[in-house]
């Protein structure tokens, strides 16, 4: 829907518009319009002011800055606000450099029962760049910054680096998942942060260890909720992942007792014309508590 200035000015104070799962009142949009017109204000600063004004915060109390930036872009597309031109950054679209550290290593061919000291290593600021490089170099989807709250891991053994995990924000909508939970749209808006998406799982191409994938999935499932609590102050109750059906059968998720609940429709979140241009993916979930539905269906 497009709005010009005269249309926007005529919107009544009672009207609210929804962006990124949040309802914005006319007064809040007027606040954004007024501050967006300030000379020299960056989009980042506008997003921070908007979050503070609207009390738009994450469960850990931090500002929902990234969601707000997306909302601002959509408001601009709808003609509600006019943002200042985006400022280029030193890291925008910079390709990830290849280093010798991520060159192929000697093959690891032992079955998982013969690997020694398998363990997970939580990614920190110091190891983040290396994780990005491995994912960009060897994962078929490449590297993309994970949305929202996130945790990443290396999986190692005494034989060497084995695999990488990345967990981030859940999909906003997924019909089979939402049916499996049985929640309402309003319950989803309140509790979606309690679902975490396994966005990346990469076993390095020189590692061919029987039953390793399901072993690692079991290890990360047992650990993730505690790590999430330590970093973000709350426990997720459900994991999800989306497996491209033309590439993978989801065998390791099945072996690790994840539940296959259906397939996507092949539509992206911005596919309003029903072009169905994306690959079909199977949806798998793993409850982290027996009472996950109760937690996800709570209402404020």
Write a structural description.
The protein is an alpha+beta fold and 300 residues long. The chain contains 10 helices and 9 strands. The strands form 2 sheets. The protein has a 7-stranded mixed beta sheet, with helices on both faces. A two-stranded antiparallel ribbon has the order 1-2. α2 packs antiparallel against α3 (43-54). The longest helix is centred in the last third of the chain and has 21 residues, at 212-232. The protein is globular. The two termini are 30 Å apart. 25% of the residues are buried.
What does this entry show, briefly?
The protein has 300 residues and is α+β, with helices and mostly antiparallel strands. It has 10 helices and 9 strands.
Q: Main traits of this protein?
A:
single chain; 300 residues; alpha+beta; seven-stranded mixed beta sheet; two-stranded antiparallel sheet; 34% helix; 19% strand; globular; disordered N terminus
- Count of DSSP E strands? 9
Q: What is the mean pLDDT?
A: 88
SSE topology string? HEEHHHEHEEHHEHEHEEH
Helix content: 25-40%
Total DSSP helices: 10
Beta-strand content: 15-25%
Instruction: Give the C-alpha Rg.
Output: 22 Å
Secondary-structure-based class equals: alpha+beta
Q: Biggest sheet: strands side by side, in what order?
A: 3-4-5-6-7-9-8
Instruction: Describe the largest sheet.
Output: 7 strands, mixed
Shape: globular
Name the poorly predicted regions. 1-14
Tell me the distance between the termini: 30 Å
